[in-house]
Write a structure and sequence with these properties.
single chain; 253 residues; alpha/beta; Rossmann fold; 2 domains; three-stranded antiparallel β-sheet; 8 helices; 9 strands; 18% strand; globular
């Protein structure tokens, strides 16, 4: 039964046998609030423990002058269709629109494009946030073009750990490894090839399928398909999207 006390606080009476005790509502609400906060803190710690279990302890990587991150989830109210998550950099940002259109009506699309290298101190925390945002039936994973000059040993370990973390966080998702695309500059392309060798070894060790965008794009004319050192004209992005769609459609079954 609610009552108004002398201090104008709302409260209630609790009966225990023949005893009647009045509690100030503020005290009760404070207790409930503390319990709720504790639950959220424990949940947060549990989440942190998972990604921190895989996150490398040290890195020598120096961040770029501008680091950026872009996450988008399309058709969030449509839970009837399976969902694919595309992870990568500006290459993913370039083809995600075409992938979304090609999969419209059959799969929903989310994407996370970031400049962060897997060795960046905040990469695993951001990855955890993205993976926690929804339930994904298929995930395609790429990291590399912002890591061309990263210490190879550090990148190899961090990349492998990132793959392991995705599998641990989303054990029911079909995971594809995506190779990094070639560049207009032949010397930078050689560096991308070095990272792709590591990528392919990781995929083999984890028994994961590969979507090889490098082999798809490398034979093409640089002047006709590249818009700058890293990026592609629309016809190049269309080819990449078609390759992604072909694989993720098969992966959702």
């Amino acid at each position: 039964m609610f009552f108004e006390g002398e201090d104008n606080f709302w409260g209630f009476e609790i009966t225990e046998g023949f005893l009647m005790k009045k509690f100030n509502c503020c005290a009760v609400f404070s207790l409930v609030f503390c319990v709720i906060c504790s639950i959220f803190q424990v949940s947060a710690l549990l989440g942190e423990e998972l990604y921190q279990k895989f996150q490398p302890e040290k890195t020598s990587r120096i961040r770029e002058a501008t680091e950026w991150s872009n996450f988008r989830a399309n058709s969030t109210t449509n839970i009837a269709l399976p969902r694919v998550l595309l992870i990568g950099d500006s290459i993913v940002a370039g083809y995600q629109g075409a992938v979304t259109e090609k999969l419209r009506g059959s799969m929903n699309v989310s994407f996370w494009a970031s400049s962060k290298c897997v060795t960046d101190p905040s990469y695993f925390q951001e990855l955890d946030l993205v993976l926690s945002a929804d339930r994904y039936d298929v995930i395609s994973f790429n990291n590399g073009l912002h890591s061309l000059n990263t210490d190879r040993a550090e990148w190899t370990f961090a990349y492998s750990q990132a793959v392991k973390f995705i599998r641990a966080k989303c054990p029911n998702s079909r995971l594809f490894i995506v190779t990094s695309t070639p560049l207009k500059d032949p010397e930078l392309t050689k560096k991308a090839m070095e990272l792709n060798e590591i990528t392919l070894k990781t995929a083999e060790a984890e028994n994961l399928p590969v979507i090889d965008l490098f082999e798809l794009m490398n034979p093409l004319d640089r002047d006709a398909f590249w818009s700058d050192t890293y990026h592609y004209h629309a016809k190049g992005r269309e080819m990449q999207a078609e390759k992604i769609v072909e694989n993720v459609k098969a992966g959702k079954n």
